[in-house]
Design brief:
three-stranded antiparallel β-sheet; 17 strands; elongated
Length: 248
Amino acid sequence: MEQKFIRVPFDLELAKKITEKSIEGRIVTRDGRNVRVLCWDAKADQCIVALLLGEFYEECGTYTKDGRIFMNGESPADLMLEIPEYMTFKDGDVIYAESIFGNDFIFLKKDDLHKTSMYVSLVNRIDLSFDSRCCCDDDNIKILRKATNEEIQTMINALRVSKHECAKECLKRFFGIEEKPECEFKPFDKVLVRDDSDDVWQANIFSRIEKDVEYPYRCINVGYHECLPYNEQTAHLLGTTDNWEEEK
């Protein structure tokens, strides 16, 4: 698997697991030198004893439990950890995975021991799946990283057009997007439309709804994400970015 390592602050228990090789990672100094820990429990305030690799030889250093070489202040020789990026993924992060078989997945990470445990995944950017605990077996992962902004938007678009009962819940819980209940529109109805919650509402004439597309509300051959009937209750939204749900 292509692996990207992220440098994070020193953590004693995590460092011990790295040394024991129970998890992936490296112990390094702040300025990037490799470190070998000889002892975790020296009888001193600086209880960690380690060897720091220089250009030609190793030198000895002693450290506090939080990886500092000095009791006060910062040093280039302070300890840091480099861990695989997937270990920094949090519950609800949007992640991209590619398998050794060529399939790719954009998924909402679920806090779990498995690398690709998920709430929902978009398989090959076509099919949404809410059914399995993992979208890809750990042993079959070729690439695993945080999703790009474009990939995140692809997931949002797929959830927006999905009819699955969990899709609206995912949009609201993880993206703060609350989809409006569908209205019964007829051709030539007056409507308010916009593409995103940051856009202003515009007046338009409704044409039709296209299913399973990015912009389902068609108005004079232009599609939009959001559509409301234009009437006395919604007229004040015209030209604003206000949300209808916020209005009383």
